[in-house]
């Protein structure tokens, strides 16, 4: 009899102990969501849509604006997110948050030349020729976006799980500051009409004829095939004639900014590995892929450079920027507890 009582007591003890452990696990697992902060670092690739740069010049007759490229793109920032689990096993959920990024890179234009109708300081109509040396423009941007994503996680042990967030990226704001060190060549072609005794605009691809007055590099090398002072020639001719000409002229306005419209939609994918640090905190190490297509609300038809050597920036000539960022993220996730479980919750469940 004593042996049977001993067996029964042990069985009861094991049952109560197991129930207590099960109840304790149930009460301690009442997390409904999480908060997470990450630091982001990655590469940035931009491609640009743009208006014809020469379209802003009056009666332009000859123009080419070369090839635009973007190099040395980088993106650094942080994100803050909150998530909510949709099922009891905490494998599916939704995530919202905020992402701030500082992005940088260099815009390059290999060549730019335009010839158009202008008026000089003496009110004479003439043909202005503008040429930029290869333009290199440093870009620094600030980008604020809101992610709205679906969340999935798979637990492999008590201290490790993987997670994947994927969804849309809503752009709140983006602005870019630019800085350039380019110089410009200014040349001029005048055409004097002896009948009207006025200067007229000659839009011919190869202007010539009576009254033709070229103040150009081509004319200099035609006159002085072995000449080595084209800059002095243009400056002297320009000073004497009163024309807007010069070689390697420094530009004003080589720094500035552009603002882009908000409301564009992109997408974001973030896989991560999560390692438990404490009962409620996890170390998150992951990667991200983001794409955004953002419109330029600035004056995309603004002259790239004026006849008075004022530079308006390559970034102001773009109509939109398509940006792709790929990088790594490191952060901390904190499990948010919901309401405390009660004994009635356990009874109703079991």
Short description:
This protein is α+β, with helices and mostly antiparallel strands and 350 residues long.
Explain how this protein is built.
By secondary structure, the protein is α+β, with helices and mostly antiparallel strands. It has a domain at 33-182 and 251-341: Beta Barrel (Porin). Helices cover 15% and strands 56% of the residues. It has four helices and 16 strands. It has helices spanning 2-28, 217-223, 230-241, 343-349; strands at residues 31-50, 62-64, 68-85, 92-109, 112-119, 125-132, 135-157, 160-180, 183-193, 198-200, 212-215, 246-250, 255-260, 265-276, 281-295, 318-337. The strands form two sheets. Strands 1-3-4-7-8-14-15-16 form an eight-stranded antiparallel beta barrel. It is rod-shaped, with a radius of gyration of 34 Å. The protein starts with a helix and ends with a helix.
What are the SSEs and their pairings?
Elements: H1 2-28, E1 31-50, E2 62-64, E3 68-85, E4 92-109, E5 112-119, E6 125-132, E7 135-157, E8 160-180, E9 183-193, E10 198-200, E11 212-215, H2 217-223, H3 230-241, E12 246-250, E13 255-260, E14 265-276, E15 281-295, E16 318-337, H4 343-349
Antiparallel strand pairs: 1-3, 1-16, 2-5, 3-4, 4-7, 5-6, 6-9, 7-8, 8-13, 8-14, 9-10, 9-11, 9-12, 14-15, 15-16
Find the count of extended strands (DSSP E, 2+ residues). 16
Q: What is the number of helical segments per DSSP (H or I, 4+ residues)?
A: 4
Which strands sit side by side, in order, in the main sheet? 1-3-4-7-8-14-15-16
- Biggest sheet features: 8 strands, antiparallel, barrel
Q: Determine the CATH topology of the domain at 33-182 and 251-341.
A: Porin
Query: SSE string, helix = H, strand = E?
Result: HEEEEEEEEEEEHHEEEEEH
- Our estimate of the beta-strand percent is over 45%
Distance between the termini: 33 Å
Given the helix and strand composition, which structural class is it? alpha+beta
Dominant shape: rod-shaped
Helix fraction, binned, reads: 10-25%
CATH classification class of the domain at 33-182 and 251-341: Mainly Beta
